[in-house]
Amino acid sequence: MRNSRRSLLHPATMFLWLTVCVVFLSWICDIYGMEVTLPQTGEQLRVQSLLSPEGLRWWLRNAVKNFTGFSPLGMVVVAMFGLGVAQHSGFIDACIRLGIGERRGKSKVVICVIALGLLSNVIGDGGYILLLPIAAMLFQWVGLHPVAGIVTAYVSVACGYSANVILSTVDPLLAHITQDAALARTGYQGSAASLSNYFFMSASTLVVGAVIYVVTRRFLFPALGKYEGRSMEPYRPLSRKERRAFWVAIAVAALYVGLTLWLTFSPYGILRGAGGGLMHSPFIAGILFILSLGIGLTGLAYGFSSGRYRSDVDVIEGLTRPMRLLAVYFVIIFFASQMFACFEYSHLDRCLAILGANMISTFQGSPLVALVLLILVTATVNLIMVSATAKWTFMSFIFIPMFAQMGVDPDITQCAFRIGDSATNAITPFMFYMPLVLVYMRQYDKQATYATLLRHTWRYSLAILAAWTLFFVAWYALGIPMGI
Asked: Could you give the maximum distance between any two Cα atoms of the chain, in Å?
């Protein structure tokens, strides 16, 4: 067993071979002249070979930029600064000891992690970076395998990306695309608002959360077994000094949150956009930095109040501690960033996705069957093109007019798309945060690879896709409005 596990590819090697596959496939598709028509503009899009002279020149000019400009890289580093201080100062440990106590309530911890994962899309992609390491600590604290915490949190964030009881950052973006496509292709005069799927997606949080909980308890825990790594320190209650430091940190956090809300929603409102909204505002654009700064300040307050920190040297130690973990991440992300950049340059992602979407664009059947097909096609396309807005930018121009002819409103079409767009997020190697998830897992399992993660997540994706689709069918058949 040990030898077979060692034969699995390291994540960095896996992304290197994926890059090679993308290069080879782009060359083959270019030879056969593979091209598609962009539905939103009518322009022709042809696959570009990465083995052509221009392709090779592009890669040499951009190899470094592909790495340094990879958007998750900066976000991960910035978020790790705040999380590192909070962990190094002892604040996160104090929260766990005070909140959970003597390592009881395993079910409570699992439910809490799932709920936080489902709600995390309010802060965009922050859940992938911040929640996963905390979930591992929580699971280990109550005697569960820490990798189970990472997998549970990852699936909750990834597969539940559209389900939320609170308006998320992606809702207004998708609604804006839907409105443009409906107006351009069908002359639709209604309003595809940000809350057009709110009722269904709010109810979906219970469905998705229940599926994740059942699969975690029934399959994930038995598969991982007991954790044989470093054991946690014996439980000890917070001392009087630690309690005082904890409440000082909470007070600092409350002041920071209050100031942030005032700067965002007050008449002063410097964190709102130029038009007074939040859609393209500094608040949304900088939400991860705002969170990291707040977590870091809270950790600082706890560290100095508890006596753990006495000078700036201690603070710098907290800031640098996560960088040791990120050393492996930097190596993996170099190869992953080249793969993502090559995939985008070649146009393979959009060409394959448009071909897949066009396969059912001429379907002649009942609207409900067509909507189920849309969910399945989107779930398949999502395996190679993860970005919801990138997919919906062209898929909306294909499917909104198609379903309009069947009498289906754009908000229902958008809702079906969002189910397929979320369900398979956890199993695709093209997920931008896959390298980070693998690095987190390798903290507790040095042999963890993409195959390890896939072995645990495929059940979640299939179960969520099936349950969520059935829930959508029932909701549609009953004629319940999707949202406001």
From this structure: 73
